[in-house]
Write a structure and sequence with these properties.
Blueprint: H1 2-12, H2 23-28, H3 34-42, E1 53-55, E2 58-60, H4 64-85, H5 95-115, H6 123-139, H7 152-174, H8 176-181, H9 193-239, H10 241-285
Antiparallel strand pairs: 1-2
Helix pairs in contact: 1-9, 3-9, 4-5, 4-6, 5-10, 6-10, 7-9, 7-10, 9-10
Length: 289
């Protein structure tokens, strides 16, 4: 939020028109129209490190979201290690108690409730989903940070892993052939079979697609709302300085409210992604038909 405020103030400060030679440099730095500043703040961009590789127009360069993806992954591992070290004679304390409570909730109320007796072997995967999405969302609220789950490539990776778990749940239990033939309900009229096959194939991929789009859209939307609220200050100040001054407490108050709401959204989105993954895995492990 602070980084967005800096951009907003920079937009409101008067500056002479840049020479044509520096126009592209100004565009890259994020200055320009409100739309450009908004996109500059919420979208991914290269870190600008020297010596990056360029292969036929493909840039293999570390980006902002990749950096925070690695940082959040390390934080997840650190939290788990600290939680394990907090155990004394088999009893957790402090951070370990909080982590254990969440793990038991995922095991008892998500995995076993939606997958059944096979649910326990999927608990490590579901816990990985929950803690990564939660920590990534919370870490993205810090000043000058970024939410890696606000990148559709990251959410697509999570959805692909979830899709692989769905197929594993069915194939490991019924075999490859019966797993796919079992998607067609028994007793279905023969004239409906050609219609149901493409419908079931499409349904096979819409489940991970729903996971991918839902998480990406929710994470991206929150940051866009905060940025837009802060940009009201320079936009109103461009009309008249008094309007900008009056807008400051309103914009900051609304942005702070949305930011606090984003803390709740972080827990909700981590829970929803984990829950839907468990439901979809359970659908393949125990087909309704």
């Amino acid at each position: 939020m602070i980084s967005a405020l800096v951009l907003a103030v920079a937009l409101s400060s008067p500056a002479p028109s840049p020479p044509a030679a520096h126009a592209e440099e100004q565009h890259d730095s994020g200055h320009g129209s409100p739309a450009e500043i908004l996109m500059h703040h919420v979208l991914d961009r290269p870190l600008g490190l020297p010596g990056h590789a360029d292969y036929g127009g493909l840039h293999f360069e570390p980006t902002r979201h990749l950096l925070f993806f690695v940082i959040v992954s390390g934080l997840v591992l650190l939290v788990v290690r600290l939680a394990l070290r907090s155990y004394r004679a088999g009893v957790p304390a402090g951070l370990g108690s909080a982590v254990e409570g969440l793990v038991l909730f995922i095991r008892d109320d998500i995995a076993e409730q939606n997958i059944g007796h096979d649910g326990r072997k999927f608990v490590p995967l579901l816990c990985s989903f929950f803690f990564f999405i939660l920590i990534a969302a919370l870490f993205g609220l810090l000043p000058f940070s970024a939410t890696s789950t606000g990148n559709i490539s990251v959410t697509m990776g999570l959805a692909v892993v979830s899709f692989a778990a769905m197929q594993y749940a069915g194939i490991s239990k019924y075999g490859v052939v019966h797993h796919f033939t079992g998607m067609i309900p028994p007793g279905l009229p023969k004239w409906l079979v050609p219609i149901m096959i493409p419908v079931e194939i499409v349904g096979l991929f819409t489940k991970p697609m729903a996971l991918m789009i839902r998480l990406f859209a929710n994470m991206l939307a929150g940051h866009m709302v905060i940025t837009v609220l802060l940009m009201l200050i320079p936009i109103m100040a461009a009309i008249h300085l008094a309007f900008g001054v009056v807008t400051i407490p309103i914009s900051l108050g609304l942005a702070l409210f949305v930011m606090l709401l984003e803390v709740l959204v972080a827990f909700i989105q981590a829970y929803i992604f984990t829950l839907l993954s468990a439901i979809f895995i359970g659908m393949f492990a125990h087909p309704a038909h």
